[in-house]
Amino acid sequence: MNTGLPNGKRIRIRSFYGFSPEDDGYVGWSKETDRDAYLRKLSDGDLIMIYGASTSETDKAERSYVLGFLEIEVRAIRDEDKASKVGMERKSERGWLGRWSHAIPVRRAWRTEEKLMISQIAFNSYRAEAGQALAVHGAELDDDEIEQALKIKVREVNVFGEPPVETQETGAIPFGQVFKPSRAFPGSHGERTANYEDGEAYVYLAVFEGDGHALLNRRKEFGDKSVAMKIGVSNDTKRRLAELNAGIPPAAGGKWTISMISQPFADKKSAEASETLFKERAIPRLESLGREFFWGRLDDANSVFWLLPGMARFSKK
User: Fold this and answer.
1) In the chain, which residues have pLDDT < 70?
2) What is residue 316's predicted lDDT score, i.e. its pLDDT?
3) In this structure, which long-range contacts are made by residues 308-311, counting pairs with CB atoms below 8 Å and at least 24 apart in sequence?
4) What are the C-alpha distances in Å from 10 to residues 84, 99, 138, 302?
5) What rounded mean pLDDT belongs to the chain?
6) 123: which of 97, 198, 227, 303 lies 20 to 30 Å off by Cα?
């Protein structure tokens, strides 16, 4: 099966506490024997898909989500060989010196621009109960999983110790396009005019991370896992998230985060149609708080969102 990867290149998964190749240009293990065992499974240019570990050390918004991809070189190094001063100071501040010090170098890195859980991509290779084993030994994606992984929107970022990326200002692209030659735009002569349209838009599902019961002046019953949520449309979900949180005091105990983001729609009108469909389908499962706000279990909201038209792009085979 042609997965879209260059011949011989493979993708393995591994969990970690975050994704910061700009400061840490390596992948590390605490035991040299574990690093060496991993090295024997790799070839130069292979890829590691990093997802957030389900531990307290990982930012809550990143746990179990795909964070990015790393292209590695098969060579044994130490962490200090390819770590910035900021990266080593962070390890010291958190009491991590001596951990993950047996390393292999990273040559290129891509950060994901979509919020997708590891179970949605590595639906055969990932097992939640094997978290520690996956953190140490990883697992190789099969062809169907690779096909899904290559659809994830990514943006290339700098890697410490490597030449800076020249195209960081370009838009996010499906990861599979990284391995395809770019096409030149045909030249032309004569007068040029420009037409501006609303362009691509996304449907997003935001959740209030904090005491939603207090926010809505509701009494919390034992076992009640309801949260406040918002469905919306934006052409820039990062900017929209900043706008949602702009009115919340920095010292407050809660903030909005993005739980799910759709594939890009061709225009705002198409995205708004999908948003309207979410509101209609959510009625039996979620409580409406008026306009685009809802109250209920996040799992139920995610299920409604996942079944919107177009979401099958990441469906399991």
Assistant:
1) 1-3, 166-170, 180-198, 310-317
2) 41
3) 308/203, 308/262, 308/274, 308/277, 308/278, 309/274, 309/277, 310/262, 310/263, 310/265, 310/274, 311/262, 311/263
4) 28, 26, 13, 30
5) 84
6) 227
Contact criterion met (CB below 8 Å) for 273 and 237: no
Q: Please report, to the nearest 10 degrees, the dihedral formed by the alpha carbons of residues 181, 122, 62, 106 taken in order.
A: -50
Residue 76 in tokens: 């044994």
From its phi and psi, is residue 181 left (phi > 0), alpha (psi between -120 and 50) or beta?
beta
Q: Note the pTM of the prediction, 2 decimals.
A: 0.59
**pLDDT tens across 157-166, in order?**
999 998 888 6
104 forms beta bridges with: 27
10: Cβ–Cβ under 8 A, 6 or more apart, which residues? 42, 43, 46, 47, 140, 141
